[in-house]
Amino acid sequence: MTRNIWTRALWGGVIGITAADLLLAIARAAGGMQVNLLAGLADLVAAQWVAYSPSGMILGFVIHLLAGALFALLFAAIIRSFNSRHNLIAGAITGLLLWLIWGLALPPLGITPAPWAAGTATTIISLLSTLIYGLILGYAVSEEAVRERA
Q: pTM of this prediction?
């Protein structure tokens, strides 16, 4: 039995955000990532001294996970309306669009600076993280994923 597109999209969003945040955390620990997205998200609902603590990172991850799940459902709705079956390219385009949203919408809100304004390493790592999310999401709602589980 295969799962419906909504369930596959939710799982794709959760796994995709987890993979993207893992890449960002490893890069931040290695000194290559200058932007702390999770702390910026936690700063929306908590004091700044809490947002940059380990508890704040967990809170930021939960917020990011919820946002990733919501974007996944939106992605599934768009894919379903186009009757698309092979969605890796759509996932990559979604990842690129999310990276542009990160750089254009989040800085005015005070969440994070634009990733391309924080150096080459941050630009590349942030772009890779959103592409990973999009590709995992695109694969999760594609026909290939359905055939493998059947």
A: 0.87
